[in-house]
Amino acid sequence: MDRFMWTNGLLEMNETLVIQQRGVRLYDGDDKAKLDVGVVLLSTHRLIWRDQKNHECCICIPLSQIIFFEEQAAGIGKSAKIVVHLHPAPANKEPGPYQHSKFSYIKLSFKEHGQIEFYRRLTEEMTQRRWENTPVSQPITPAGLKAGRTRAVGIVGIERKLEEKRKETDKNISEAFEDLSKLMEKAKEMVELSRSIANKIKDKQGDITEDETIRFKSYLLSMGIANPVTRETHGSGTHYHMQLAKQLGDMLQAPLEERGGMMALTEVYCLVNRARGMELLSPEDMVNACKLFESLKLPLRLRVFDSGVMVVQLQSHSEEEMIASAIDNVSDKGSLTAEEFAKLLGLSVLLAKERLLLAEKMGHLCRDDSVEGLRFYPNLF
Amino acid sequence: MSFEWPWQYNFPPFFTLQPNVDTRQKQLAAWCSLALSYCRHRKLYTMDVLEAQESPMFNNKKIERKLSVEAIQVVFEELRKKGNLEWMDKNKTRCLIMWRRPEEWGKLIYQWVSKNGMVNSVFTLYELSNGEDTESEEFHGLEEWMLLRALQALQAEGKAEIITMDDGKGVKFF
């Protein structure tokens, strides 16, 4: 019983009431305490007992002082009890009703029942240990009143709370953006790293075998473009598009050769953006870059067919050859539709049709537009 | 005597108006000559576009191709430019077809007249187109409007004069 200390019975700022039960008598160990029947209150931080008649008589123990507790079933003429075992009182304990006690446990005797619910809530509080997360503010002393936090009362209090909330949001936002800028910095570092590796490879060309260089480069490539040209690195407008055009020129050479020297612009767009990974290109930027192929003397050309279909083709990819192959194929078969021609060459139907139309435009083929579809014939006229 | 179709008639693209300018020109030239020789063969003087589309001239049943109405109008327009055709209405649905132009007919008639030494004599139009003397000539059986056109062409050259007579028209050659 000597662990108890006097209290005014008010809850502290962060403290909340969990449950209260009337008709509880306290036992100092096995002996009835010299106190009357009272109300026992369980808060998130403390176990409080208050005399039912004399409200001034109010005592408490912090929950942190409880070691464990157990139920004691009711018997004949005996109320159900909860036995609470306690740590010894700290030296600087506030005064309480008992100075000394030979017992290190107390009992709560429930005259008016409610012990089952109380026991359950106590168990909950003891496992949650909420007092640890939100320590109660220091007992209010005259000094504490001046220096301590101001209580939020009235409109001023509400305003103050709003202000606090705003500040917190501000902080959260700026923290979030800080993360983003950090990410950007890291990305820049990664780009730097890959560039330096690329440079090193260039320098060590002699030391490393050709094979290894190629292999390493292919690794870099498979990860994407090591150093994509972006608006950030190359500004805006023509300069950006020029650099972009150069990069496209480098990376499209191989795929174009694989595909017979010509790719539809949409296909190019997909391929390029897949290689770039994060720094995606807009269709507009790509078209603008492609338009610069010729003025930059790159071996690629953007070609716009009469139908409006745009393709990127190798400069070496000669039109005459294309037309000749179309004529040969059509003459061989007598007549061809774009679909049949596409199948023959392994091209997309769109490109096959463009070739046929081109040959027609040059006067080598003529068309038969019937219900069966558009067929191309050698021009016999 | 059956009509001899040109080779293009069995070539499917012939029935699609070609977008290529050069090709189209050749195609139209072939159509024009086909249309004129067909009309001459069948002695056709007027044509209706819709009817023409169903006639064998523009409809090859064997290869299941026929020229569209628009294309037929293009062909006819081409013929008009060459002086072989005249529209009879604004909507261009009917036309007069002249497989010989009036001047050509006039020339033929005048040749016949001078060959037979009948310059300075007067003929009725009926005599010219249906008379016994002209039976072996090409202009025999020529429709009157066509004959009149031919003579008007000659008159413009000063080689003939059309005279109005009691029961019709006559002509005097110079």
From TrEMBL, chain A:
A GO BP annotation: protein transport to vacuole involved in ubiquitin-dependent protein catabolic process via the multivesicular body sorting pathway
Keywords, in A-Z order: Coiled coil, Cytoplasm, Endosome, Protein transport, Transport
InterPro entries listed in its UniProt record: GLUE_dom, PH-like_dom_sf, Snf8/Vps36, Vps36, WH-like_DNA-bd_sf, WH_DNA-bd_sf
Keyword Membrane belongs to the record: no
SUPFAM superfamilies per UniProt: PH domain-like, Winged helix' DNA-binding domain
Localisation: Cytoplasm; Endosome
Domain GLUE N-terminal intervals: 1-138
Pfam families registered for this protein in UniProt: EAP30, Vps36_ESCRT-II
Annotated coiled-coil segments of the chain: 159-186
Top-rank lineage group of the source organism: Eukaryota
Main location: cytoplasm
GO molecular function: phosphatidylinositol-3-phosphate binding; ubiquitin binding
Cellular component terms (Gene Ontology): ESCRT II complex; late endosome membrane
Record carries keyword Transferase: no
Family that this chain belongs to: Belongs to the VPS36 family.
Function noted in UniProt: Component of the ESCRT-II complex (endosomal sorting complex required for transport II), which is required for multivesicular body (MVB) formation and sorting of endosomal cargo proteins into MVBs.
Subunit text: Component of the endosomal sorting complex required for transport II (ESCRT-II).
Protein name: Vacuolar protein-sorting-associated protein 36
Taxonomic source organism: Hemibagrus wyckioides
From TrEMBL, chain B:
Coiled coil (UniProt feature): none
Keyword Transport attached: yes
GO CC annotations on file: ESCRT II complex
InterPro entries linked: ESCRT-II_cplx_Vps25-sub, ESCRT-II_cplx_Vps25-sub_N, WH-like_DNA-bd_sf, WH_DNA-bd_sf
Organism of provenance: Hemibagrus wyckioides
Keywords, in A-Z order: Cytoplasm, Protein transport, Transport
A GO MF label: protein homodimerization activity
SUPFAM superfamilies, sorted: Winged helix' DNA-binding domain
Highest taxon, organism lineage: Eukaryota
Membership in a protein family: Belongs to the VPS25 family.
Annotated GO biological process: macroautophagy; protein transport to vacuole involved in ubiquitin-dependent protein catabolic process via the multivesicular body sorting pathway
Cellular location(s): Cytoplasm
Keyword Translocase listed: no
Record-given protein name: Vacuolar protein-sorting-associated protein 25
PANTHER family in the record: VACUOLAR PROTEIN SORTING-ASSOCIATED PROTEIN VPS25, VACUOLAR PROTEIN-SORTING-ASSOCIATED PROTEIN 25
